[in-house]
Predict the structure.
Amino acid sequence: MQLERQPVKFYQRELEPLLDLSREVLGKFIGANRDDLVYVTNATAGVNTVLRSLSFEPGDELLVSNHEYNACRNAINYAADRCGATVVTIEIPFPLKSEKEVLDSIMSKVTDKTRLLLIDHVTSQTGLVLPVKEIIESLSERGIDTLVDGAHSPGMIPLEIDKLGAAYYTGNCHKWLCAPKTAGFLHVREDKQSAIRPLIISHGANSTRSDRSKFQIEFGWMGTRDPTAALSVPFVIDYLDKQVSGGWAKIMELNRKLAIAARKLILQTLDTSPPAPDSMVGSLASIPLLDSRLEKPYQSLKYLDYWQAPLLEKYNIEVPVITWPNHPKRIVRISAQLYNSLPQFKLLADALKDLRDEANRT
């Protein structure tokens, strides 16, 4: 309403201080200086922003793990193809027994041609919390920058982005923070900001202002758009903080405990072993399932896997069943939030057991 009541006033005189305040509140929540933060539509846009801004040469190597979100994997492939660089895939095992396996897998692929690592903080498909601080430090010792895809991190795990030291970190506020869609952020370390340009080049490109950084000027105005989602972030952080005694720290603790308990319940019901230690679980967890019985990978506009249809239509359960890492391997990924309870996951465990037993009978 404030925007529509008087758009000229809003865009010219009110928006910038409101964004400053929003970035300040978000910065305190994720442990980052507001001047190093800009809003983008989502983490995928943040990854694309960095990759499209950086320059690579033929022969350069860009590292990415086999757990990377498909959209961002496509983005790094595109960036490499444009300049003749090579994308090197790090095969992080799953199941795995320790965080050390992650670090060892990454470092085994590092060469004198490595220029950048794109890595999830929390992997989307497999739900692993990766040891990004140790990864960043190990690569920094070799003079290699890290771009962290933190799509699932804000609100799931405690964040201190400045202390992590990554050159680039991007995340979403619409997931575990429960903000509206299109509230994503990009954090760029101060010494790297001069090279990073927004995906949309607009009025800030030739601005003569000197009251703030070029980084903030360019990202602060990328054309007329609705900034409501970004401006709502302070309200969302404050609102949820008041819903539980103990605030956000307690919310993250409760969600993690529920995810671990739910994973244990499903593993026991399916009589299978944990694919990763509890220390690598946040509020997401993935569990390997019976291999697909189909000759080819399942393809549908409605569902990721053919088990999703009966889970929804027969058991009234909506949960992603994903082909991963490749057909016929499959996993189910669960999420734990304040509105979930262990009996709900018991229903899922029993449904998965029924589907497995039925498949084994045929």
Summary: Residues 247-361 form a domain with the Aspartate Aminotransferase, domain 1 fold (CATH 3.90.1150.170).
